[in-house]
Write a structure and sequence with these properties.
Length: 160
């Protein structure tokens, strides 16, 4: 839900109420994203590590744990970075030695290295407060009316 906070508060609110259209959408972008996740990094032995309400694409182990996420497009890179930092935050809270990760964008053959910074703990806690405030609202936030909305799995729900 942290990524949704940075993309669209309405999407965050709807998702928090149990409306998960990403899994049932016929939207081409959503389908492409699912295929990408299923077809890339098949050799990773620690693929899809799930705990609490999160699912990390894969982990690598060395001196510390490295979180890896695979994304279709860099369009929401800021949200992707904060989603990965949220995973690092959760792992650190559980005592796991984790302070970095990588976001992979296979379609553009690009990767972004993400490092947990000194002030990220405060920034993450503020983001989580904002998430809780949004999901606690009695009605969904207004639609954004942006170009990105037309490619969203929630488009029909928001604009029909």
């Amino acid at each position: 839900m942290v990524a949704y906070h940075f993309i669209c508060r309405r999407k965050l609110w709807l998702y928090s109420k149990g409306l998960n259209l990403e899994n049932v959408s016929g939207n081409v972008d959503v389908i492409k994203g699912k295929i990408l996740h299923e077809s890339r990094f098949k050799r990773e032995s620690h693929k899809e590590f799930a705990f609490d309400t999160v699912k990390i694409d894969f982990l690598r182990f060395g001196d510390h744990v490295f979180v890896h996420e695979v994304k279709k497009s860099k369009k929401f890179e800021k949200a992707h970075i904060w989603q990965l930092k949220y995973y690092i935050y959760l792992l650190r809270k559980r005592g796991v030695n984790c302070s970095s990760g990588v976001i992979h964008y296979p379609a553009s053959m690009r990767k972004v290295e993400v490092t947990w910074e000194e002030d990220d703990n405060l920034r993450m806690e503020q983001a989580l407060k904002d998430v809780n405030q949004t999901v606690g609202e009695p009605v969904p936030p207004a639609t954004l009316n942006k170009k990105m909305c037309s490619r969203c799995a929630y488009f029909d729900f928001c604009y029909a």
